[in-house]
Write a structure and sequence with these properties.
This is Peroxisomal coenzyme A diphosphatase peroxisomal. GO terms for molecular function: coenzyme A diphosphatase activity; metal ion binding. Its cofactor is Mg(2+); Mn(2+). This protein is an alpha+beta fold. The chain has one domain: Nucleoside Triphosphate Pyrophosphohydrolase (Alpha-Beta Complex). It has eight helices and 13 strands. The chain has helices at 20-33, 46-57, 121-133, 185-189, 264-278, 288-302, 317-325, 341-354; strands spanning 36-37, 42-43, 74-83, 89-96, 107-108, 111-113, 146-153, 157-158, 164-174, 198-205, 230-237, 240-250, 283-287. The strands form three sheets. Strands 3, 4, 5, 6, 7, 8, 9 and 10 form an eight-stranded mixed β-sheet that branches. The chain has a three-stranded antiparallel β-sheet with strand order 11-12-13. Strands 1-2 form a two-stranded antiparallel sheet. Strand 11 and strand 12 (240-250) form a beta hairpin. The protein is globular and about 55 Å long. The two termini are 23 Å apart. Residues 1-13, 32-42, 99-104 and 177-182 have low confidence and may be disordered.
């Protein structure tokens, strides 16, 4: 059912609010600044131009609970976008090493837990991106002519590890404003990234996270069929309906960065990927919370609903706030059990009631 929305009965409509006049002003400022896809020296495609503008204009709802969360409950991820040679947006993703405690062997954004209570979400995301994929933490150390612009933050999501996770969206520019010749992010910057704590660094077409099939460029091919891109199903989760998205990203038209030095669990996953690719693996699976964040980020950026069914709300801030009020998001204690199904169900019911929705 194309473009249809399905969620718990009586759920609120999409909570994406953006000032369209502000978007138009930002688009004009981008055109004046001549932001372009470096490899072809062409302007960003119109859809990508508008997407950057909408992300710049997006302001997430206030979330005061962050300041009350203990250190062990805080996390952030970096949603790093860049323009390909066609002027379309792609997003950087990783395959996590088996040495990482959580989500090992899964596709994910660079990111992780806070080190101190003083760190902002963007600072957490950038530090973790340095530790995991070698993206310089200090902007002055990013090779010219590349530079990073922080665009916006998306609403917090609740990880299965009971962390409040803030997606931080940024754009990796590759322009000639420094007086140097512009360079291609795909061909020059991505290979420089060192998969220091992950098994692989790859990218995916950002707009495609609203589509049921691969969108194939004139000069590219995809393995298998276009329909191999997406599958999804509804699951029962704590007395509610949640959409599980599964995307299968083609890796035949891109450079995949692997660890320069392989050790332990990192080597295990990287070598497993090598073997699977030799045997014909041509797509990496992206699913779970990462897939949901990509769908929601693309909804905001492009101002469109997906072609597939999806939950209308973005993030889990109501649930997180209620869990905190219930005293369930205190400092993690290995000697005590973490969140139970009953805890999350109670918090979810309270969040839905606060919006006037029904289970």
């Amino acid at each position: 059912m194309n473009g249809s929305l399905r969620e718990t009965e009586g759920a609120p409509e999409s909570d994406i609010t953006i000032d369209e006049n502000e978007v138009k002003e930002i688009i004009e400022s981008i055109k004046e600044a001549q932001y372009f896809d470096a490899s072809s020296m062409a302007p960003l495609a119109p859809a990508a131009l508008a997407a950057i503008a909408r992300l710049r204009a997006y302001k997430p709802p206030p979330f005061k609970a962050w300041d009350r969360l203990p250190l062990s409950r805080r996390a952030a991820v970096l949603v790093l976008l860049f323009a390909d040679r066609h002027g379309d947006l792609r997003v950087v993703l990783t395959m996590r090493a088996s040495t990482l405690r959580n989500y090992s062997g899964q596709a994910a954004f660079p990111g992780g837990k806070a080190d101190t209570l003083d760190e902002t979400p963007f600072e957490i995301a950038r530090r973790e991106a340095w530790e995991e994929i070698g993206l310089p933490l200090d902007d002055s150390k990013i090779p010219k002519p590349f530079r990073i612009e922080h665009l916006c933050q998306l609403p917090f999501s609740l990880a299965k590890t009971a962390l409040a996770v803030r997606p931080c969206v940024a754009f990796l520019h590759s322009d000639g404003s420094s007086g140097l010749r512009a360079a291609s992010v795909e061909e020059t910057m991505i290979p420089r990234l060192d998969a220091k704590e992950v098994a692989a660094v790859f990218s995916a077409p950002f707009y495609n996270f609203l589509k049921e099939k691969d969108e194939v460029k004139a000069d590219e091919t995809v393995p298998g069929k276009r329909e191999d891109w997406y599958t999804g199903n509804w699951i029962d989760w704590h007395e509610g309906k949640w959409r599980m998205h599964n995307f299968f990203v083609p890796i035949n038209n891109q450079i995949v960065s692997k660890p320069k030095v392989r050790e332990g669990g990192q080597a295990a996953i990287a070598e497993q990927l090598d073997e699977e690719e030799e045997e014909g693996l041509m797509r990496y699976k992206v699913w779970g919370m990462t897939a949901r964040m990509l769908v929601d980020g693309a909804r905001i950026a492009y101002g469109e609903d997906p072609e597939f069914e999806h939950n209308t709300h973005i993030g889990d801030e109501g649930m997180i706030e209620n869990l905190q009020k219930m005293g369930k998001l205190e400092e993690k204690d290995p000697a005590r059990p973490d969140l139970t199904d009953s805890d999350i169900r109670t918090a979810k019911v309270a969040a839905l009631k606060s919006t006037g929705a029904k289970m």
